[in-house]
Design goal:
Elements: E1 6-11, E2 16-21, H1 24-45, H2 50-102, H3 109-113, H4 123-152, E3 164-167, E4 170-173, E5 180-183, E6 186-189, E7 195-197, E8 202-210, E9 215-221, E10 226-236, E11 243-244, E12 249-253, E13 263-270, E14 273-275
Helix pairs in contact: 2-4
Length: 288
């Protein structure tokens, strides 16, 4: 037994075997091999009991899988409720309000359902698809609304002063000559000195006296083919070339020129042709 604890090595000098002891490394290798053999024998001894353990783990995995499926079904129900109450609301809002506002046709139902490019497979996939589609939809609508808001800033869509329209666009009996003549604007009766405001953004084209009957007047070029005229003013507070924004005060109501009482004569000139200003006013008023 003692001989087992030694190892014999060949001695080149003496041409004979010599006996040496085991190194630490040899002891570790031997111990590891012994452990492997012991483990193999243990596994072979419990072989008949392995099916029991297998059934235990399979049953445990099955119960865990069923629990996960139940939880996934509950989550799917909650996603469906949120999809209907949140995504559905904003979808209908875009379809019924924002798209008509910018002149867009309704989104195809098949696109909202996901039939284009493959339908989403699960509730979560469908909610994610619709969320992304709705996000892209509102980005598109925002760009269109921003572009329209920029254009709208240069459209004369408001009344230029607070008052009552007493004479509209069209044929009327002239108060000075007593014959029927074309009236190319709106006459808005207002107290003397009432502020007159720009109906849209633009650049002042002129602010001066007109010898033809308009009296003290202001014209604004809205840089889109439209020009607005404000006549019979008592005072102007703008200069030619000045840029003004919508609702900015440009003068005050008066009775200069051919006028019988304080009022504002307001015109819209579309590419050189005088048109009915009420075509542009968002909330038209009845003419008295």
């Amino acid at each position: 037994m003692r001989e087992f604890l030694y190892v014999f090595e060949w001695d080149e000098h003496n041409l004979a075997f010599r006996r040496v002891g085991w190194s630490f490394r040899r002891w570790c290798v031997a111990a590891f091999r012994l452990m492997v053999v012991g483990a193999s024998v243990g596994i072979m001894s419990v072989g008949p009991a392995w099916p029991v353990w297998e059934r235990f783990f399979v049953e445990r995995s099955r119960r865990h899988t069923n629990a996960l499926r139940t939880e996934a079904a509950e989550i799917a129900k909650e996603i469906a409720v949120l999809e209907e109450s949140c995504l559905g609301y904003w979808y209908e809002r875009a379809q019924r309000f924002y798209r008509p506002l910018v002149g867009e046709a309704p989104m195809p139902e098949s696109e909202w359902a996901g039939h284009m490019g493959g339908a989403p497979g699960t509730f979560s996939d469908r909610a994610l698809y619709r969320g992304r589609r709705l996000f892209a939809e509102y980005q598109h609508l925002h760009r269109l609304l921003a572009a329209q808001a920029e254009r709208l800033a240069f459209l004369p869509c408001l009344l230029p002063t607070e008052g009552v329209i007493v004479s509209g666009y069209g044929m009327r009996r002239d108060p000075f000559y007593k014959d029927w003549r074309m009236h190319f604007g709106l006459d808005i009766a207002a107290p003397y000195g009432t502020p007159v405001r720009a109906t849209a953004a633009g650049r002042i084209r002129l602010a001066s006296w007109d010898v033809g009957g308009y009296g003290l007047q202001v014209e604004i070029d809205h840089l889109n083919g439209l020009v607005t005229k404000y006549a019979h003013l008592s005072k102007t507070i703008v200069q030619p070339g000045q840029y003004v924004r919508r609702n900015q005060i440009i003068g005050y109501v008066g009775s200069t020129g051919y006028s019988t009482a304080p009022h504002l004569h307001y015109e819209v000139i579309e590419r050189g042709i005088k048109v009915n200003p009420q075509r542009y006013i968002l909330l038209p008023q009845d003419v008295r």
